[in-house]
Amino acid sequence: MAPILVSRDAGILSLTLNRPDKLNAFNPEMHKLLRDALEEARDEAAVRAVLLTGSGRGFCAGQDLSERNVSADAAPIDLSVSLGSNYNPLVRRLRALPKPVVCAVNGVAAGAGANIALACDIVLAARSASFVQSFSKLGLVPDSGGTYFLPRLVGSARAMGLALLAERLSADEAERWGLIWKAVDDDRLVEEATSIARALAAGPTKGYGLIKKALHASAGNSLDAQLDLERDLQREAGFSEDYREGVAAFMQKRKPQYKGK
Ligand code: LHQ
Is the minimum distance from the CB of 140 to ligand 1 under 6 angstroms? Predict the structure, then answer.
C-alpha cells in the first residue's frame, strides 16, 4: 500500500496520507513521496492547487513512534536529524509553494501532523477531527513550525496551554480560536475542501503565490517593510496576464478565465 496516494484533476494535485492503521504517522518513505509530489506541484504549471488529506479515521499522528528504538540499551537518537532532513523541509516546501494548499483534516491531527496541517494555506477540519500538540507528553518540544504557528494563530496564552497541556482541541474550537479556516460536518468535508481547491485551481495562480509571500513575510516585518514589499509584489502581480484578464472580465461583466500566468 503506497503511503501517499496522488491523483490529479482539474488543476488540483490531491495528496492523501495513507498509513491508516497508524493514523497516517510519518515514516521516511512517506516523507520522500510527499517531497516528490510537492516538487511536482511546484514545477508543473498544470498543477494550480494542492489538496492534502488523510485516509481512514485520522489525518496524521506525527512521527511514527514505533520506528524509534528507545530501549535503555539503545544509543540515544538525535532527533534533530529527522527534523533537519524531513520535517523542516516539508514545512518550508508547503509554505514556499507558490500555489495554494488546502488541507482537509479528516480526523485527529497530532504532533507534527497537527503542525503540518497548520503550515497549509486553508485548513478545513471535519467536526469530529481534533488537534493535539502531543509533544510534551513525550518530553518533547512542538516542532514542524508549531512554536511559530501557534502563537501567531491563537495568541501566546492559548499557544502555551496547547503546548504544555497537550489536550485535544476540537475542530469547532479550533475554528473559534482562529487556528483553522473552518470546521464542517464530517460528510461535507471532502465536498467543501474540493470545491475550495477547485475554485483556487481556476484562479489567478500567480497572484495567489504572491499573496502567500506577502502574508508569510508580514509576521517578521515592520509596517514600513511590509508596505515596500506590497508595492514590489503588486508590481509583479500587475504584470501578470491574469490581472489583465481580471480587469477585462470585470469591465465586460463576464466571468474571468484565468490561466494562472
Ligand atoms: C501510532 C501513532 C504514532 C505509531 C497512533 N506512531 N503509531 C519529529 C521528528 C523527530 C522526532 C520526534 O518527533 C517529531 C514529531 C512528532 O510528531 S512527535 C509526536 C508523535 N506523535 C504522537 O505523540 C501522537 C501519538 N498518538 C496519540 O497520542 C494517539 O494515537 C492519538 C491522540 C493521535 C489518537 O488517539 P486514539 O484515537 O485513541 O488512537 P490510538 O492511540 O488507539 O491509535 C490508533 C493506532 O494508531 C494505534 O495502533 P494499534 O495497533 O494499537 O491500533 C496506535 O499505536 C497507532 N498510532 N499514533 N505516532
Answer: yes
CA of 80 to the centre of ligand 1 (A): 19
pLDDT value of residue 119: 98
Confidence (pLDDT) at 72: 84
Our mutation pick for probing the ligand 1 site, out of 18, 22, 23, counting the most ligand atoms within 8 A of Cβ, is: 23
CA torsion sign for 68, 74, 78, 81 is: negative
Q: What is the β-pairing status of strands 169-170 and 130-132? A: antiparallel
Q: Is there an atom of ligand 1 within 6 Å of 25 CB?
A: yes
Report the half-sphere exposure of 67 (CA within 13 A, side-chain side): 11
Classify the C-alpha dihedral 27-123-107-141 as positive or negative. positive
pLDDT in tens, 178-192: 999 999 999 999 999
Ligand 1 center–CA 111 separation, angstroms: 8
Q: Is 166 in the pocket of ligand 1 (CB under 6 A)?
A: no
Distance, CA 187 to ligand 1 centroid (Å)? Answer: 24
- At 73 the pLDDT is 86
pLDDT score of 232: 98
Over the stretch 15-64, which tens digit does the pLDDT of each residue have? 999 999 999 999 999 999 999 999 999 999 999 999 999 999 999 999 99
Alpha helices per DSSP H over the chain: 28-43, 79-82, 88-96, 112-118, 146-154, 156-165, 171-177, 189-201, 205-218, 223-238, 241-251
* Residue 97 zone, left/alpha/beta (φ > 0; ψ -120 to 50; rest): beta
C-alpha closest to that of 67 among 29, 18, 115? 29
For ligand 1, whether the C-beta of 134 sits within 6 Å is yes
Query: Which of the residues in the chain have pLDDT under 70?
Result: none
